[in-house]
Fold this protein.
Amino acid sequence: MKQITKYIIKNSLKRIFLYRACLVRLRLMGVEKVFSYTLANETGVTSEQVRKDFSEFGIKGNKRGGYDINDLLEKMEKIFHRNKDHNLVLIGMGNLGLALSKYSKFVQRNMNIVATFDIDPFKQKQRSDIPVYSMDRLKEIVDRFRVKVAILAVPEISAQEVADKLIRHGIKGIVNFAPVLLKVPQDVIISNVNLCDELESVIYYVHKQIKVDGLKNLELLYKDMKY
């Protein structure tokens, strides 16, 4: 049975991303050991929260002697299955799809876009580092490279149809950049990335902060006038 799915990344997993970035930076500085309070200060949480997050993902360490940074990073690599390559396909070679296909960080994290797809025959004929195929070859490519995850960067009107086809051919996870909530079976993971929503969220908080700062300034001005 299909249902509208928006896969919510757990806050603890988001914090693991932050811890990892902090650990990489510390290692580049020559640091070998780190304490939970250091990670807490760097990421804006408490030491207790750091230890709780580590425990959730099976990461253990010596509280008194600190955590070995190399060991922590190695354990985090296992969380994200960085010990093997992950083949992906990208559907839609418009401006966004083209930019995503050239994003070098994917390769650095063992995520390889093995093929892209577009319905435009002209784009299929263009030479590029990653081949652009017609959707007729989707099953062939997915089977050949054992692809389980796809990036969807197509217009809203065709997103559901393309998602259905991906799922029929064995795709189990989709990062969806189309501004629409997809209906998929319960065993398929969907992560929706809406850039406009993200920007509007930032705009909302910026104006909220401006309003708060404005009220604080008025209060200070009122106090000064009283005295």
Observations:
- Residues 86-193 form a domain with the Rossmann fold fold (CATH 3.40.50.720).
- The two ends are 69 Å apart (CA to CA).
